[in-house]
Amino acid sequence: xxxPLPDTRQLGPCVTVLFGKDQGxxxxxxxxxxxxxxxSLLIDPSQTxxxxxxxxxxxxxxxxxxxxxxxxxxxxxxxxxxxxxxRDLAALxxxxxxxxLYGLPSDRIPAMTDFVTERFHYLGWPNATGFEDGAxxxxxxxxxxxxxxxxxxxxxxxxxxxxxxxxxxxxxxDIDLSSFGPYYGDAGSSLEEFEATLRMLPTVAADHYVTFxxxxxxxxxxxxxxxxxxxxxxxxxREAALLGLLEPPRTLExxxxxxxxxxxxxxxxxxxxxxxxxxxxxxxxxLLADDAIASDGREYWRL
Length: 303
Ligand SMILES: [Zn+2]
Prior knowledge:
The protein has 303 residues and is α+β, with helices and mostly antiparallel strands. It folds into two domains: 8-231, Metallo-beta-lactamase, Chain A; 234-302, Arc Repressor Mutant, subunit A. Helix content is 29%, strand content 21%. The protein has helices at 47-51, 89-93, 95-102, 109-119, 191-200, 221-245, 252-258, 272-289; strands at residues 8-11, 15-18, 31-35, 40-43, 60-62, 81-85, 129-131, 136-138, 142-148, 157-163, 169-173, 208-211, 217-218, 250-251, 293-295, 299-302. It has a seven-stranded mixed β-sheet with strand order 1-2-3-4-5-6-7, with no helix packed on it. Helix 7 (252-258) crosses helix 8 (272-289). It is globular. Bound molecules: zinc ion.
């Protein structure tokens, strides 16, 4: 039975948002199709794209980054070219590369491999190619441009779509403007880079912003800037929570057990501990550098 594509929204002559279930709530997401007069391109094929029948046929697929949910529809799309920013390329080319990007402890890798291959159809695409910051794709009437926005992963990018006779649309990937806030819990993530990206975002002018999860489409620059500010607040909230935990002194293991990222009862069993550890470690490193806390190599405490 053919399964037509789900809800869509047209943003000008060349851009169509293909909404995933529940505004693209994880594990689903919102994909963006760009069709110009001389070429077509799909950004971040989701679970919903994977389930669509007949399969989408495009000239090229671009990913905002190499995470499993953004490639979930990749194996079902007919396309001759797949690209991601070069810093995420190894993760897209093989499952082993993706595991290195996550940085999970070795005893979790078999289960995580099953998770991404079975649930997200992640195959590893050895022929995928990498692009650089500022790369452009001219589709005729629409030009897509990569804007490096690292932190979530090293290669995370915004993809800006400028239309000759229509609005400018920016695809924001996992700068998803959710109440969860920025995710920087992988080995390939960086809190410092994410903060630089968050400072840069208000300078990105567009008529519409499309997030992969949660918000869907934001239709106004001022609203986008306000949503970025609210999204960013999670970082300070986590840091304040961490400082609050450092009286009395605690070890990293104790801090990970309590956590600063996931609300109680929501920590994913497969990778949640690892995400807490990587996130907490980055905050601790910064607080140590700022002389806000001290450590004897085992425990951490407030100064
Ligand atoms: Zn992601």
